[in-house]
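Morning!

This is the sequence you dropped in the shared folder:
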Amino acid sequence: MAPFLRQFLLLSLVSTISIPVVSQSPPQSDPQALNLVSQAMMALTGGTVVSDVTLNGTATWNVASLSETASATLIAKGTGESRFDMTLSEGPRSEIRNDASSGNLGELIASDGSAYPWGLENCLVNAVWFFPQLSVLGAMGDSSLIFSYIGPETRNGTAVQHIRSYRYIVGATPEATALNQQLSTMDIYLDATSMLPSAFVFNIHSMDEIDPGLSVEVDFSGYQSVNGVKVPYRIQRYVGGNLGLDFSVTGVQLNSGVSDSLFAIQ
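The structure's back. Tokens below.
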């Protein structure tokens, strides 16, 4: 996709001035998909309301030929704020997402303290990729979020139910609607027996081009009950098929009153 066209379409997503389009009914979520989302949330929470989470642990960070194991923390508040901090030998590294009223934002804070903002194209999937209760599964009441049922599958030798989510913009141009769907799509795999999420899959994109995207897969395993809430004690993030992050939980804090200041974007 040519850069100028990419910029035009991204501006279409956030512009408050829209070109009139033919009125059409917005898509509706598949009832079967919504039923599976409800079952997953009940399996995850048992009805307990989760407002924030802090996961402390150790993580192995793999980039190119570098592999390092160090302490790490994953923090989320609501379905729109998340933070990943890891203390590497060269210094601390952080990833922050904040879907505030000013728009969907994200940034990387490198070990030297430099902040690198994420493009809008990488801020349309749900901010909380590591804690299923505060992912898109916990945002089912959002009318812009559309769920569809893909069907039963076998994944890594285990039977799963496959559902998909994306966001829909009311009144946007067809081009912006299609692009938003592409950038916000997330595939969700639920264990067919326990209904606990086993994986999320979505794409990230380079700063220069939107297509093709680079696949990100987040695998969840080792669920344990913490105050009635099922927490995955191992979270693995693959980028382009390579294991980039392997996080093992050693401590969990739920509903501790996490401050919004932790998710401030520079």
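Headline: The longest strand covers residues 214-226.

More detail when I'm at my desk.
O.
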